[in-house]
Write a structure and sequence with these properties.
By secondary structure, the chain is of the alpha+beta class. The chain has four domains: 205 residues, no CATH class; 60 residues, no CATH class; 50 residues; 145 residues, Heat Shock Protein 90. It is 53% helix and 20% strand. The strands form four sheets. It has a five-stranded antiparallel sheet with strand order 2-1-5-4-3. Strand 15 and strand 16 form a beta hairpin. The longest helix has 81 residues. The N terminus and C terminus are likely disordered.
């Protein structure tokens, strides 16, 4: 047994269990997957920020171009207006020099040329205008040089042109409604409103800056916002004394990251489940392998013990049996011839003779256990054998108040060694009786299952825990004061020699069932 324990310890401690290695491998795989998905999420975020920066640069360029176009369009518009109104003023001055305009004529001329009104100053207080009161309430005075003014409150452009031949000046008014509409369409506010309607743009706002806050035009810096109110990539552009704040929606990034992490959890759960299943399978396989190794080590240990026991038994038979026989013969002669021996000496003589017989039985048991089992297979009837043995032990069972029940469903012959199997059945019945000296029960079942024949003996009087039931098959294990502990061990060796097996189970506390299984050989009638 020491060799068995050492072999088991070496087997279990010398190697790392496969299920632990498998769990570590799958744990490492999950960590690698986590790192990969984290890298993928970081890469997706970096790619998004790269595209946002590109959008920011593009929006900045478009904004700056829009602002330049707005300023340029305003300058060009004023130049065109000044040129148009200057030509109109010269023409009015020319016509008025030929024949002075009347109010009705100026009104008609202004209507034909789409002008808001015309005023011709003869002097500082003497003028004629048409339509009448077209410049009512406007603080207008002649200037020494041509001058164009924009009156935002009145939505009017006023051009003052000094007369060349006469004193005074000519004032021409032009409605600014269409021009203001064009300017509004080119304004930064309209650009921001249009920009906020584009796909992917969450908002575009204009913020006015004070003179101290205005800064030089720098590349826009993108800032990620992730709050309950805002979830966007925001950047700011300085345009003159204003700042445009643009927020690019990050819904695509959020959806992408959610998809990446969803895939990770699904894939990670699948790997974890697979790892758990494989670890469990490997654990079961390794446990089975270790159990086989332990069985092989146990068999090897028993073979070594059997070999040592065989040598010891041979030595005992040679060195002990002859003196025992001589002692036995001497004691028997004293018992027969010692008529005058009585009382205490007679009792001691009987005790010594019984001890010699018991010692001889022990030596015979050792020899029987150590002797190689070589069964001579012949057709035998187990049902008849069981009934014959029970008939011999029924009186003893009645004496000890042991109830006997039997269920015999096998009446066909099987192949086996009659003497060896008779010894097995008798040992099982005898042990069942000796385990219950104060009464109990014995239940015997004989039948077939598949390709095996089974003989089961169920009895009470079992004193070991359920997990130690198989210990009764170990050599020298006995719970009786006078037992050798070899009866069931010999029975196991006989059954194994028949290519069978023995199972020991404790189905309930205080009971034990010993079942012998024997193979059914072909060629036997009825099998």
């Amino acid at each position: 047994m020491a060799g068995e324990e050492a072999g088991t310890i070496m087997t279990t401690k010398g190697r790392i269990p496969l299920w632990i290695t498998n769990t570590g491998v799958f744990g490492l795989l999950i960590a690698v997957v986590l790192v990969y998905f984290f890298w993928q999420a970081t890469r997706a975020k970096q790619a998004f920020l790269y595209h946002v920066n590109e959008h920011a640069q593009l929006v900045a360029g478009v904004t700056q171009l829009n602002v330049r176009n707005a300023f340029f369009s305003q300058e060009v518009t004023e130049e065109i207006l000044q040129s148009f109104l200057s030509n109109s003023a010269r023409f009015v001055d020319y016509l008025d020099g030929i024949e002075p305009f009347a109010v009705e004529e100026l009104t008609a001329f202004a209507a034909e040329t789409n002008l808001a009104g015309i005023r011709i100053y003869k002097s500082e207080v003497n003028y004629v205008e048409g339509p009448p009161q077209c410049f009512q309430g406007l603080p207008i005075a002649c200037s020494a040089k041509p001058k164009l003014e924009y009156r935002e409150a009145d939505h009017l452009y006023v051009f003052s042109w000094p007369r060349q031949e006469e004193a005074g000046c000519i004032l021409i008014g032009l409605g600014a409604t269409n021009i203001e509409l064009m300017q509004r369409q080119l304004s930064l506010e309209n650009f921001a409103a249009t920009l906020s309607k584009l796909p992917g743009i969450c908002y575009a706002n204009i913020e006015q800056l004070s003179a101290g806050q205005a800064s030089a035009a720098l590349p826009p810096e993108v800032v990620m916002l992730d709050t309950n109110e805002d979830r966007a990539a925001e950047f700011r552009l300085c345009v003159g004394n204003a700042e445009i704040v643009v927020g690019i929606c990050t819904d695509y990034l959020v959806l992408t990251l959610n998809r990446i992490w969803r895939d990770f959890f699904v894939f990670g759960a699948a790997i974890a489940l697979l790892g758990a299943v494989l670890s469990f399978v490997l654990y079961r396989q390794q446990s089975y392998h270790f159990a086989q190794v332990r069985r092989y080590e146990r068999q090897l240990s028993r073979q070594r013990e059997d070999a040592a026991l065989g040598r010891a038994a041979a030595s005992i038979a040679h060195e002990v049996r002859n003196p025992l026989n001589a002692i036995k013969m001497g004691l028997q002669r004293l018992q027969l011839e010692g008529h005058n021996i009585a009382g205490e000496p007679r009792r001691l003589l009987d005790l010594m003779l019984n001890e010699v017989r018991r010692t001889n039985a022990i030596v015979s048991g050792l020899l029987s256990y150590a002797r190689p089992q070589d069964p001579k297979l012949k057709p035998i009837r187990l049902d008849l054998m069981v009934n014959d043995i029970l008939e011999l032990y029924i009186p003893r069972c009645q004496k000890h108040a042991i109830g006997v029940t039997r269920s015999i469903d096998l009446h066909e012959p099987i192949m086996g060694d009659h003497d060896l199997l008779h010894q097995v059945v008798e040992n099982l019945v005898k042990n069942a009786i000796e385990a219950q000296p104060d009464g109990g029960f014995i239940d015997i079942q004989l039948g077939s299952s598949g390709k095996e024949v089974f003989l089961s003996i169920h009895n009470g009087g079992f004193a070991l825990p359920e997990n130690e039931a198989e210990r009764i098959l170990e050599p020298y294990f006995t719970s009786k004061a006078e037992g050798t502990g070899l009866g069931l061990s010999i029975a196991q060796r006989v059954i194994q020699a028949h290519n069978g097996r023995i199972e020991v189970k404790s189905n309930s506390p205080g009971t034990v069932a010993v079942t012998c299984y024997l193979p059914i050989h072909k060629g036997i009638s009825g099998t």
